[in-house]
Design brief:
The chain is globular, with a radius of gyration of 17 Å. The model has no long low-confidence stretch (mean pLDDT 95). It has a seven-stranded mixed beta sheet, with helices on both faces. It is built from nine helices and 16 strands. The chain is α+β, with helices and mostly antiparallel strands. A hairpin with a 5-residue loop joins β1 (32-34) and β2. 44% of the residues are buried.
Length: 264
């Protein structure tokens, strides 16, 4: 691992961990409001975003640091630096605000637009999931892997109800063929697939900040992430108004099997 990557991984880890006390303190207590795009935001989202962006920006001023809560963003932001970061300060804000424990801080480190390392702090289990291709995958201190068991009726599949009801037929196929888990956090669906808690994930309804931190986790765990509506990396532009992403994740064999089942 290069010193440039090593130093960024250490700063990223500490930046996330420094915000966990606030995350737990405000869980289920903080007031929230609704943004113009229909998503919920709390003061904790904003405080965590500001804290992590400030820490990374001070350590690496040449890096582009991006967040779902960039309140001063007026349009697409070009991603041109060698290293960039994508943050979702609280994925699962609805859960967080209402006292449902499935929510996470999600921070991705990208190099030349490709996700090389991810940090996902899982509030529900009080553990940091981290890793990247070539660097290993760790659920806390425990090495982890994608579950390689072939897809079957007992498989646990994370699924986010699609915004576009045109995907209703695919949703029905998933419900008929697998055991579905809908946790209210797209980041945790993908991170849990990486560490083998879920066998696969299917989603039609995410943005880049929902998944950027967990994509390198899946790859580090020996799995695959396949984008249905166009490759998302390398990331060249960050846009809060981007279109929703559709993807499949799990072992390579399970991704292939689910794609064939859905006709995707």
């Amino acid at each position: 691992m290069s010193s440039a990557l090593q130093s960024r991984i250490e700063v990223g880890r500490q930046a996330v961990l420094a915000q966990t006390e606030l995350l737990h303190r405000e869980f289920g207590r903080v007031a929230s409001q609704w943004k113009s795009d229909g998503t919920r935001v709390t003061s904790a989202d904003l405080a965590i975003s500001e804290g992590i962006l400030r820490t990374i920006g001070a350590a690496f001023p040449a890096d582009v640091v991006l967040s779902e809560e960039l309140t001063n963003s007026v349009g697409p932001i070009a991603v041109e630096s060698e290293f960039s970061w994508v943050l979702d300060p609280i994925d699962g804000t609805n859960n967080f605000a209402t006292g449902i424990a499935h929510c996470a801080i999600a921070l991705a480190l990208l190099q030349h637009g490709m996700p090389v390392y991810g940090f996902v702090y899982d509030l529900s289990r009080r553990v940091l999931i981290q890793g990247g291709p070539g660097y290993g995958l760790f659920d806390g201190d425990r090495p982890a892997r994608v579950n390689q068991t072939p897809a079957n009726p007992q498989s646990l599949v994370g699924f986010h109800s699609p915004y576009d009801k045109a995907f209703g037929a695919q949703a029905r196929l998933l419900v008929e063929n697998f055991k579905i888990r809908a946790l209210g956090s797209s980041t945790l669906h993908l991170a849990y697939t990486a560490i083998g808690i879920l066998d696969a994930t299917v989603d039609h309804n995410v943005k880049i900040w929902d998944i950027a931190a967990a994509v390198p986790l899946v790859l580090a765990g020996g799995g695959a992430v396949e984008f249905i509506n166009g490759e998302q990396f390398p990331l060249r532009s960050f846009d809060l108004k981007m279109k929703r992403i559709q993807y499949l994740a799990g072992s390579a064999d399970n991704v292939r099997a689910i794609r064939e089942l859905l006709g995707a």
